[in-house]
Amino acid sequence: MKLFIDSNIFYNLLFATELTPAARAVIEEHEGADLYTFITVVNEVIYVSTLKYCRDRGMVRGRYDLRRVLARRGYPREVVDSFMGLLEELGVEVLSDWQDLNELLDVMLAYRLLPNDALIALTCRRHGISLIATFDEDFARIPWLKTVLLCVCAWLFTQRGEEVRPVKVECRAGLLIPLYAYPMPAGELVKLREEYPGLPIIVMVNPSNGPGSKLDAARYAGAIRELRAANITVVGYVYTSYTRRSVEDVERDVEKYASWYELDGIFLDEVTCDENASHLEYYRRLAERIRSMGLKLVIGNPGTWAAEEYFDFFDIVVIWENPQYPPLEELQRYKSLREKAAVLVYNQEELDEEKLSRLIENVKWIYVTDDGGENPWDTLSTHLRDTARIIAEATAHQQP
């Protein structure tokens, strides 16, 4: 039996997290199997492990400091030795990357995969590997791969003596974070992910009212890589001016994101909310085009109560973007669509836990910030950790 090990499994074996028991369990359950990974996974694990090592020791605050530390000191020997020792202990064989560019592009487009994920899928097929150990749900779309330890939303663990039993559950809610700031505070979000590994997090980036330039892409690349390595979903901002902007202009921005950045999807802003047939067709066409470029997640932001037809082609619809919480009676109209509904609330000096709990009951995606002014999305909310805690508690309370 051949089993491919993804980077998120290695990370949770190297560092103690809520997912470590599940990562260990999959290795134990496949004792005797031939284990494989490939060069790109090795690079990812060493980079993210070094960042955590340096941050835990107060050597860096984020990836920007890391480059300076590495230039002066090099990679910490203990990090590299620890990972190489783990590979040796498990008997993992490191494969070379797939080299056929045309086939890589075909798989990316056909299965809506990011480049590195497509590389893994092709490497597995080339070497006759049909099992992959990962917490990344994207691999479930690959017909020649069967995922082991697929984590759709969260893993909770119950302790019974010495036995740890993984239980797959659905998270009650997730964070949808507009982060229109540079430099991006990726380190804070990675820490939040480490504290709440089962909490879905989506971050929207907005380099320059859209994708900006290739220089912007280079500046953002490290932070985006850091977020995605921590299993945080990242999408790019594109405005549509309520259909007044041509489809072709919007598509050009999307194409730049697809070419210059490594993203999971697109966030379309200034979206109409009515049932006008031409408006609906405009966004339906855009959603299809975006997915055809390999960007799987498409979010629409009317910012107000929207017709249900928008939920047919958007994966998530922002139904409220305001400096106050939405009225409960209006919010409850969307309860049957809660898995795709999002609410963004800004200018909140204090976090109203009672109103936040009502949001969690009625919508899946939430963000509440104390930021306000012209751009309420240019800093991380000071309520972020409390919001994550309340969501986690709501999830735990629904367990039997």
Describe the structure.
By secondary structure, this protein is α/β, with parallel strands linked by helices. The chain folds into two domains: 2-148, 5'-nuclease (Rossmann fold, 3-Layer(aba) Sandwich); 174-393, Alpha-Beta Barrel (TIM Barrel). The protein contains 15 helices and 15 strands. It has helices at 7-14, 20-29, 39-56, 63-73, 77-90, 101-111, 115-126, 186-195, 214-229, 247-260, 277-292, 310-313, 328-331, 353-362, 384-397; strands at 2-5, 34-38, 92-95, 131-133, 146-148, 154-160, 163-169, 174-179, 201-205, 233-239, 265-269, 297-301, 316-322, 341-345, 365-368. Strands 8-9-10-11-12-13-14-15 form an eight-stranded parallel beta barrel, surrounded by five helices. A five-stranded parallel beta sheet has the order 3-2-1-4-5. Strands 6-7 form a two-stranded antiparallel sheet. Helix 9 (214-229) links the parallel strand 9 and strand 10 (233-239). The model is unreliable at 150-170 (pLDDT under 50).
Features:
five-stranded parallel β-sheet, Rossmann fold, eight-stranded parallel β-barrel, TIM Barrel, 400 residues
Kindly report the average pLDDT value. 88
**Do you know the CATH architecture of the largest domain?**
Alpha-Beta Barrel
Kindly report how far apart the N and C termini lie.
Answer: 36 Å
The CATH superfamily of the largest domain appears as Glycosidases
Strand/helix succession: EHHEHHHEHHEEEEEHEHEHEHEHEHEHEH
CATH class identity of the largest domain:
Alpha Beta
Number of domains: 2
Helix content: 40-55%
Number of helices: 15
Could you tell me the number of beta strands?
Answer: 15
Give start-end ranges of low-pLDDT stretches. Answer: 150-170
Query: Biggest sheet: strands side by side, in what order?
Result: 8-9-10-11-12-13-14-15
Question: Which descriptor suits the 3D outline?
Answer: globular
Q: How much β-strand is present in the residues?
A: 15-25%
